[in-house]
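For the sake of transparency, this paper describes our internal protein records without simplification. Because each token names a local backbone shape, the row as a whole describes the fold. One such record is reproduced below, unchanged from the form in which we store it:
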Amino acid sequence: MSTHDLITAIAAGLAAGADPGRAAGQQRYMRSSMPFHGLTVPQVRLVVAAAVASHPPADRAAWLGVIRDLWDGATHREQWYAALGVLRHRRFRAWASVADEPLLGLLRHLVVSGAWWDVVDDASHVAGDLLRADRTTMTRVLRGWSREENLWLRRVSIIAQLGHREATDTDLLTHAIAGSLDDNDFFARKAIGWALRDYSKTDADWVRDYVAANTARLSPLSRREALKWLERRPGS
């Protein structure tokens, strides 16, 4: 079965659900140069699920090709969301757990070309899943991304461990944060605070100690976000 059948089915499904009124508001909210069809996230997921069920890729190479072609050929932002949906679909979980060059190159491409929080934060979940599956490879990759000029690669390195709880590698988290401590960009500062806040649910003392030791370099936004849940606890 041709991979183009899957791409065509997704594009047709998205277009069929178009809501021009909602689309205009979505485009303004996202500050997107790419137009929207006007679908909700659940609607996009349903389109992807139906298309994948009818036109599954024959192998991993075809799956990666579908994601890349759907992304690069997108005319509407929901096609980017759909590409990420195919990447994260449970049917392809085994393929998505192999941290090899084809998948890592694709993931980097999505992050760098997407360059905005909606798609980058979704892609960060992929990086987090890969880290769980192959800690050696992904630790090296994320440490490298944390020192990139590209803001969005650095953001992924910082938030890739969201939800990892006790499995969080604090050395990796510290290294990732350090690469963006001097960045004044809102999305870098927010990512730092978000990652620390999330880990505070697991180890409040570690987060308190980290913030205390780095108060001079952490932005007010990062400090506030990091301590948000701790300051609400009695006795904190």
